[in-house]
Each structure stands twice: as C-alpha cells, then as structure tokens.
Amino acid sequence: MSESKTFAADKDFSRLDVCVQAFFPELTRSGIKKLIEGGHVFIGGEPVLKAGEKVRAGSELTVEIPPAKQLSLAPSDAPVEIIYQDADMAVINKPQGMVVHPAPGAYDNTLVNALIGRLDSLSGINGVLRPGIVHRLDKDTSGLLVVAKNDAAHLSLQKQIAEKSARRIYTALLEGELSKEEGTIDTFLDRSASDRKKYAVARTGRRAVTHYRILHKYHGYTLVRFELETGRTHQIRVHARHIGHPVVGDPVYGKADKKFGLRGQLLHASTLILTQPTTGERLEFNSPLPDYFRAVMQKLTPKE
Length: 304
Description:
This protein folds into 3 domains: about 5-65, Structural Genomics Hypothetical 15.5 Kd Protein In mrcA-pckA Intergenic Region, Chain A (Roll), CATH 3.10.290; about 65-165, Pseudouridine synthase (2-Layer Sandwich), CATH 3.30.2350; about 170-270 and about 295-300, Pseudouridine synthase, CATH 3.30.2350. The termini are far apart. The chain has helices at about 15-25, 30-35, 110-115, 150-160, 235-240, 290-300, and strands at about 5-10, 40-45, 45, 60-65, 80-85, 90-95, 140-150, 165-175, 180-190, 200, 205-220, 220-230, 265-275, 280-285. It is of the alpha+beta class. It is globular and about 70 Å long. Strands 5, 6, 7, 8, 9, 10, 11, 12, 13 and 14 form a 10-stranded mixed beta sheet that branches. Strands 1-4-2-3 form a 4-stranded antiparallel beta sheet. Helix 1 packs across helix 2.
C-alpha cells in the first residue's frame, strides 16, 4: 500500500521538482522526477506529470510513496552478519571485500543478494538493483551500515543522514604520524581529471566535511577516529590522502600494502547512531575491529 505526505508550498517555486526537494531533501532529483512522471505527485489533488511545472505559494502538494517493488535479483548464501533488525530496518556488519549492491562486473554475491535471502522485505525506492540501500561502504571498507525494510523507513533514514542526526563513525589506521590531535577537513570533491574512477579534492564539486581525532600514536602510523558530516564517495580515503596520511593498505589513494599482507584499506565503520523510524528510539551500534585490522596493530610500536 502506498503512503503519502501532504504539505503547503511556503513560497512560489519555478519548478515542481525543486519544490518537492525543498520538503524532501533526502530524495535525489532523479528520484523526484520518477515520482512526478509516475503520477505520484499531486497539486490540489490533481496529478502533475511535469517536473518543470510552476508551484504557487500556498498550493497543497501531496507526494505519494509507492510500495516496495517486487525484487528480481537472485538471493545468495554469501556470509553476512545481521547484528540487529526490526520491522523497519536492519543493521549489517559488512565484511571487507563484499560489494554492497549489484553493478557492472559484480551482479552476484553482493550484500543485496545476501540480504534478499535473509530478510523478509527491502525498500524499493532505489530500484531493483539497490533495494534497501540507504548508504554505502566501499568494497574493501568493513563495518556497519543500515538497510531499510520498507519505503517509509528508507525516507526517514535518508532524512536523518541528510540532516546529520544520524552519526557514522569510522576507525582507520593511517600512514605516518599526525601532529594535530583533532581537526576538520572541509573541501570540495570531484572526479579526478586523470582517472575518472577516482575522486580528488578540487575547487568545485560537492562539499565534503570530515571530522577526525587521534586515538593512538605508533611509530610510523596513527590510529584515527573519523566522523562523517557529509557522505561523498571515497570521502575518508580522499581526505586522508589530502592531509598527507593515506589509509594503510589503500591501493587507490595510498599504496598497495606489501608489509602486512592486506587485501584492502584498514578502514572500518565502527559506530552507527540513528533514530528508529517508527518508535523514535535513539539507537547506537558498535562493531569491533576485524581480526586482520587488530593483527596489524599488534605489530606496531606505540609512541610514549
């Protein structure tokens, strides 16, 4: 069954999609366009099918959230740890090396494939290939992420991330010794001009803000706590490189590890704090560092 939300435009808008996004900042422009063209957005009770339609101040708008789509992806028995679930969401402890959702070159054994076989439902807002996915982790980044089991929960969780009420905290081992105990990295990120598969700090692009604090110092390395204020692709990894201390084992933004025998970067989503979409309860989840991460730290020499 579809769910709907009604609101009144607080000013004139030159475009309907801009108006909807002002009230639903968690939705992407392309997602809003699909809702409009699908007949799910109404002005004064009448469906409007053009994203460029003008909206007058005081107009009553209704946005209909369609029910989750029937999924066609094949389930898999890939190992995945579900540390919490209820009727609205599930919190997953993703292992290093697992892709979150199907994409060119990786259509099987993704986290989504594994969840289809284990959860009773997943939201359909992001389409067939990304059901339930509210936010992502890179393939070789381990740790916590939340997935939505219905569309209303998906919108709530996306809004929490957009409004920064949901907190995502990571632990990383960096190359070199940081001198500043804590700080904020505030830049713009864009596609790298030399390699479109990579991202880089740039003069234009999307603003990216990362807060960091040193946890432990070692000879030649630093264990750091990162907290995301924004959630751009590869954000922590690019910012770590930007300050001259790439994540250990990062073959893209640092150097492929040979010393510790790693399969990817030592970056772990260790804490996730959010509000349960239906009950409003504040929940906190924590994930210990993986064995391979702790094994590397045991080989390091602490600084006094």
